[in-house]
């Protein structure tokens, strides 16, 4: 079939030779493409939207071929959720709980632990009524029920969400797997220790708990000081090692204590050189090795993963590492794997050996895979892609050994201990499992019934569609109707709900089918239409009488005008160039309209055509914009000749925007713009506009006269010359007047451009007063400029001479007189003067204003603070070199000498006990000392913060804690939180849990950062980061770490984590 554009062109080709009044029914059918041949199956790859008779490629392929039952439903086979024979049960991953699933599978395969949990006294489960669902409450109840399901459930995998919720774990965030293991075993031990059965009380200790001692030997007297301690797993450093034996040896190696780290010997009663090492005294039945793959990187401030290959044996002999043991052999029982190169993401799986058959299984959440043979096969877990810098070749492993760069935990079982082969399973647990299996079987039957119903429904739909589709094509001479193409597609798509047939969206303004919508509908036989409307319902049927003659006639007229447009354009442009005859009367036309009339005509024709559509009429005569349209008064011209219309609808008084054309030209244009405004040459301009123009010129002359008079009377105020200041009070007057600086700014704008703005008529001094009518600012505040904080519309105040105030009082309306007076105290000889304002200062509002300012400074949501890194306690890093250049008025500020440690800063000196703050006397006046030479300059110092080198800006909030600020500083300066010493105004910030608002950190504060020297022992700091300082540092760490570092790390762990 021909492309859509070719079909469109062929449907209207007749319009070029047929006048609108000569259109026949044959022309209408050509426009609606009634006679276009229908496509045959196999000839079109997709449906021909331009052909209303094409019924191919609308979704009929799946109904006309062979029946596929799977296409009639989206329900998986419920038997795929059933547990296979002689396999284990998986666990559902709830988002980021794969690490939990791996440990649960490892603990489930510990037969002694499983047997003990089955014996856990659970009165709720024993007395449970099987008519309702069983819901465990405690951790042990959840684990007991979970293990029972893992053993005897018929499901392929089960949901551990009950246990995860009871533990309070975040399913969307991956936790530290090693910490989870220790905390869970500790919680389980605490719960089981409260049982009456002694076998239950000690099961965790028997299975996982071993004992070692930190032994310190004095080099002088040889005295040994053992400190016994228990462990549930041995944490081995893998950095720099190749196999498990080296890691254990490094864990037990001897450490020398000398220098500042000498040992205090109680026998010698002094500090002596000594040696310290760990002695293994007893090992548990299940020996867990934590390979410390996740370490702290000081450079980045985050954890990273060590992808170091470590080899480990299938059979481990621990006799060389024990004191006085003859035989201690362990067999590898489980390997826990972390897939991924990052410490913060990845996936956890477990390889576990079945204690009954010695077969190895890989547990990957819901998926469980049995390894071939009887040997461990790590498989693709070691093929995870690494970065180019860390790629290493896998070393060769000897027989009986395995090698891994992703294993993070190894589980060994003692060989001499025989596990329980006979399964121990209480009857009440079996009842709970049977209840769950019954629910599962009911679900399987329900899914099977739903599958069968969907298949039966699909088969019935198949026969219906096949029958109706054969009736759809309309033969020549048969009656026909139109139905929406999208509805036919949805009818043939069984996955969507079928709605009633609705043709209303395809109507034109005459209530019939618009020719442009023929691509959205299909022509079908009336017999098929009756069946479809009868079964599915519908409104607005479109039959043979729905072909719209009016729309076809309008489209024909538009096509003919478009074809004639280019010829008319050339003719009009030539006629415009010819001069108008003296006796000929012309018409006014806008110059912009004349330049763009061809584009406007195209827009007009398209709009006339759009108006015939039912839902496409534009609002308020709006038309589509075009590149050729010009603008008038900043708005796009949309209608022809509107550029000579005034706002009152008359002829514009601006003669430069219009010209006169002949009647012949105007008649040509009227063919395309019948509704355009018409103005004969003798038509008068708008009288209202002419009157307003005269009045505007008169007002402009008055404003200029007023501006000249005010400027001459207040010339110094306009030019900012000879202005009074409070820093240097004028000697020839004791009174100065105050007005808002906003008034002065607006008045100067009017003086500069009197014709462009309105004159200033009043002075609004009430903005400087409180609701009680009192003045809001003290002498000090006006001197220092805190009136800037009053409101957004008031930036400062302006001082006036008495003579200037007389002029202003005469020329402007003043709502309130505000002045400041200088009063000499004649009873004193020390030269002290007082200053008093009228109206007087309102103490209550002033204090409330200051309180609100201070409150706003401590209750902020997004504010900037500056962190400066210092190299010692007194000097900043290159403090004298700003990081940016200044311009304009800031150049003068930059020439000023910088203040050192608050020198010459009044706020700093007052807070430190220097010059006392100026106080108000009993009468509300101000007492000040004589003006010194330092204060005579009157130079306004800039309050804008200048960023220095070694300083960075951070966005903070008042409710943010100091701990969170340290994390921001770590990212900005690459200084770890425990290496940061922060201070502000000489005060050290140490409470990590306190908020910045409570610590006195306000917007624009400068926080000094002093970084400690890095500690050489990275492994020790890694322990601190991972929360192991209590175990490794406080319990006589074998590493040489000063006590001050141990104390600081302990404090950091308790406060920061």
From TrEMBL:
Region (Disordered) residue spans: 605-635, 882-922
Gene3D superfamilies: Cysteine proteinases
Molecular function via GO: cysteine-type deubiquitinase activity; cysteine-type endopeptidase activity
Catalytic activities: Thiol-dependent hydrolysis of ester, thioester, amide, peptide and isopeptide bonds formed by the C-terminal Gly of ubiquitin (a 76-residue protein attached to proteins as an intracellular targeting signal)
Gene Ontology CC terms, in alphabetical order: cytosol; nucleus
Domain Ubiquitin-like intervals: 956-1007
Residue stretches making up the USP domain: 89-415
DUSP domain sequence ranges: 453-552
Known EC number: 3.4.19.12
Alphabetical keyword list: Cytoplasm, Hydrolase, Nucleus, Protease, Repeat, Thiol protease, Ubl conjugation pathway
Family as reported in the entry's similarity comment: Belongs to the peptidase C19 family.
Stated name of the protein: Ubiquitin carboxyl-terminal hydrolase 48
């Amino acid at each position: 079939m021909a492309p859509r554009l070719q079909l469109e062109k062929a449907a209207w080709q007749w319009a070029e030779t047929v006048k609108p009044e000569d259109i026949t029914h044959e022309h209408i059918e050509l426009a609606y493409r009634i006679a276009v041949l229908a496509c045959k199956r196999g000839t079109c790859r997709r449906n021909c939207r331009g052909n209303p008779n094409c019924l191919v490629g609308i979704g009929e392929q799946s109904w006309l071929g062979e029946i596929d039952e799977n296409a009639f439903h989206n329900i998986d086979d419920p038997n795929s959720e059933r547990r296979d024979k002689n396999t284990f049960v998986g666990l559902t991953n709830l988002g980021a709980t794969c690490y939990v699933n791996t440990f649960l599978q490892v603990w489930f395969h510990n037969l002694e632990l499983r047997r003990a949990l089955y014996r856990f006294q659970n009165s709720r489960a024993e007395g449970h009524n099987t008519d309702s669902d069983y819901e465990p409450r405690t951790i042990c109840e959840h684990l007991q029920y979970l293990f029972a399901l893992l053993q005897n459930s018929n499901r392929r995998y089960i949901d551990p969400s009950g246990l995860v919720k009871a533990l309070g774990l975040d399913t969307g965030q991956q936790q530290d797997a090693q910490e989870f293991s220790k905390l869970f075993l500790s919680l389980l031990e605490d719960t089981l220790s409260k049982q009456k059965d002694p076998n239950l009380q000690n099961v965790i200790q028997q299975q996982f708990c071993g004992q070692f001692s930190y032994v310190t030997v004095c080099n002088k007297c040889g005295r040994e000081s053992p400190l016994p301690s228990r462990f549930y797993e041995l944490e081995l450093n893998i950095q720099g090692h190749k196999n498990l034996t080296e890691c254990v040896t490094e864990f037990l190696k001897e450490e020398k204590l000398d220098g500042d780290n000498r040992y205090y010997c109680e026998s010698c009663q002094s500090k002596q050189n000594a040696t310290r090492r760990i002695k293994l005294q007893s090992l548990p039945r299940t020996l867990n090795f934590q390979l410390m793959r996740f370490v702290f990187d000081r450079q980045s401030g985050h954890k990273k993963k060590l992808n170091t290959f470590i080899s480990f044996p299938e059979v481990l002999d621990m006799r060389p590492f024990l004191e006085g043991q003859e035989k201690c052999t362990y067999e590898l029982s489980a390997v826990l794997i972390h897939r991924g190169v990052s410490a913060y993401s990845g996936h956890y799986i477990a390889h576990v050996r079945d204690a009954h058959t010695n077969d190895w299984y890989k547990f990957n959440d819901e998926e469980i895979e049995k390894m071939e043979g009887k040997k461990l096969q790590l498989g693709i877990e070691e093929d995870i892609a690494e970065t180019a810098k860390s790629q290493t070749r896998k070393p060769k492993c000897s027989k009986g050994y395995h090698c891994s760069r992703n294993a993070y935990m190894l589980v060994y079982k003692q060989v001499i201990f025989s596990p329980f082969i006979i399964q121990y399973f209480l009857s009440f647990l079996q009842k709970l499992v049977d209840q769950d299996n019954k629910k599962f079987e009911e679900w399987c039957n329900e899914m099977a019934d739903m599958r069968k119903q969907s298949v039966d429904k699909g088969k019935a739909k198949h026969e219906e569609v096949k029958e109706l589709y054969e009736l759809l094509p309309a033969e020549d001479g048969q009656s026909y109707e139109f139905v929406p193409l999208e509805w036919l597609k949805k009818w043939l798509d069984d996955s969507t709900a079928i709605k009633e047939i609705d043709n209303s969206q395809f109507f034109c303004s005459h209530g019939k089918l618009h020719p442009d919508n023929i691509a959205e509908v299909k022509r079908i036989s009336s017999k098929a239409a009756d069946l479809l409307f009868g079964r599915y319902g519908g409104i607005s049927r479109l039959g043979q009488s729905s072909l719209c003659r009016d729309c076809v006639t309008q489209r024909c007229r538009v096509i003919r005008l478009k074809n004639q447009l280019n010829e008319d354009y050339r003719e009009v442009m030539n006629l415009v160039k010819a001069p108008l005859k003296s006796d000929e009367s012309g018409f006014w036309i806008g110059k912009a309209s004349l330049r763009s009339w061809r584009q406007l005509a195209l827009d007009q024709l398209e709009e006339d055509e759009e108006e015939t559509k039912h839902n496409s009429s534009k609002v308020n005569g709006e038309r589509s914009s075009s590149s050729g349209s010009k603008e008038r008064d900043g708005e796009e011209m949309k209608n022809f000749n509107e550029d000579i219309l005034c706002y009152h609808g008359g002829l514009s008084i601006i003669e430069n925007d219009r010209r006169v054309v002949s009647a012949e030209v105007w008649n040509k244009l009227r063919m395309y713009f019948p509704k355009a405004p018409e103005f004969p040459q003798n038509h008068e301009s708008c009288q209202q506009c002419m009157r307003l123009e005269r009045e505007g010129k008169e007002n402009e002359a008055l404003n200029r006269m007023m501006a000249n008079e005010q400027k001459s009377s207040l010339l110094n105020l306009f030019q900012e010359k000879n202005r009074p200041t409070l820093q240097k009070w004028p000697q020839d007057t004791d009174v100065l007047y105050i007005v808002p600086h906003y008034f002065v700014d607006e008045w100067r704008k009017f003086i500069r451009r009197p014709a462009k703005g309105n004159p200033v008529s009043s002075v609004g001094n009430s903005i400087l007063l409180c609701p009680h009518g009192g003045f809001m600012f003290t002498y000090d505040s006006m001197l220092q400029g805190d009136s800037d904080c009053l409101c957004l519309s008031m930036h400062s105040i302006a001082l006036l001479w008495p003579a200037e105030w007389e002029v202003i009082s005469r020329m402007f309306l003043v709502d309130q007189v505000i002045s400041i007076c200088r009063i000499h105290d004649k009873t004193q000889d020390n030269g002290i003067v007082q200053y008093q304002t009228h109206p007087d200062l309102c103490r209550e509002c002033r204090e409330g204003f200051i309180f609100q300012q201070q409150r706003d400074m401590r209750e902020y949501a997004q504010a900037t603070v500056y962190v400066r890194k210092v190299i010692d306690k007194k000097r900043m890093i290159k403090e004298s070199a700003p990081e940016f250049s200044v311009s304009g008025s800031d150049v003068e500020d930059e020439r000023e000498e910088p203040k050192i440690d608050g020198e010459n800063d009044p706020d700093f000196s007052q807070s430190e006990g220097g010059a006392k703050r100026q106080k108000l006397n009993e009468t509300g006046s101000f007492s000040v000392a004589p003006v010194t030479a330092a204060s005579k300059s009157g130079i306004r110092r800039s309050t804008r913060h200048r960023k220095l080198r070694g300083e960075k800006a951070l966005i903070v909030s008042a409710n943010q804690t100091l701990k969170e600020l340290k994390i921001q500083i770590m990212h900005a300066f690459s200084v770890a939180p425990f290496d940061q010493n922060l201070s502000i105004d000489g005060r050290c910030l140490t409470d990590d849990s306190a908020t910045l608002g409570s610590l006195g950190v306000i917007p624009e504060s400068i926080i000094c950062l002093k970084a400690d020297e890095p500690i050489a022992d990275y492994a020790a700091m890694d322990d601190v980061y991972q929360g192991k300082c209590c175990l490794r540092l406080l319990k006589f760490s074998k590493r040489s770490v000063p006590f001050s570092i141990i104390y600081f790390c302990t404090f950091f762990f308790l406060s920061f984590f």
